[in-house]
Amino acid sequence: MANKSPKNLEDKSNQEVTKIVPMQQQKQNFLENLITKFYNLFGIQTLYNEEFHSELNRGRKDFRRTRLIKPDLVGLNLDGINLSGVNLNRANLSGASLQKAQLHKTKMVGANLDSTNLKGANLSRANLGDAQLSWADLRNINLSNTILNNANLTGADLDQSQSILDAEKWFTKFEHTRLPEGVFLVWYIQIFAFRLHLMKKREKK
After folding, report:
1. Which CATH superfamily is domain 73-205 in?
2. What is the pLDDT of residues 18-56, one digit of tens each?
3. Residue 194 CB: number of other CB atoms within 10 A?
4. Going along 11-83, which residue ranges are E strands?
């Protein structure tokens, strides 16, 4: 019986790999279809990047109850869009314009919002933990109960955004950030009151 040449063995190995790849892709597609159907049961629409852009071109603004898959949002004009409750964790929105956008309860953990225009947007109860907001335009926005823990707001403009006082901002970076008038004084009073409270607790012990 003739021995198989290395060339034959290599061809056979390549054929096996070619068979495995489509099988893996089929499994992935099957799972994705299953997940999509699951979300559909709850009235949540799934949109891939091309579908999302197609909807934008048609003039659609309301994307509540929508699941976006790998959306390309860099530099887009999304003024007035409603993305309330949408999962945009780790999405790249750098340089995009979202003036007066509705982002209530939107998940943007680790998202890139560098140089994004969010003037007049509603970000109440949104989660922007670990988000990058360097040099973002955050004037006159609603940050009531917004999570900004460990976010980077270096150089951001928060003029007329007094609701920053209501945001959760542990370890948030505010270097060269323009803050609303009077915010520093309020923060100082809050810190002083907190330290006074701690001192009284220690005295009671």
Report:
1. E3 ubiquitin-protein ligase SopA (2.160.20.80)
2. 555 577 778 777 777 888 888 888 899 999 999 999 999
3. 10
4. 45-48, 66-69
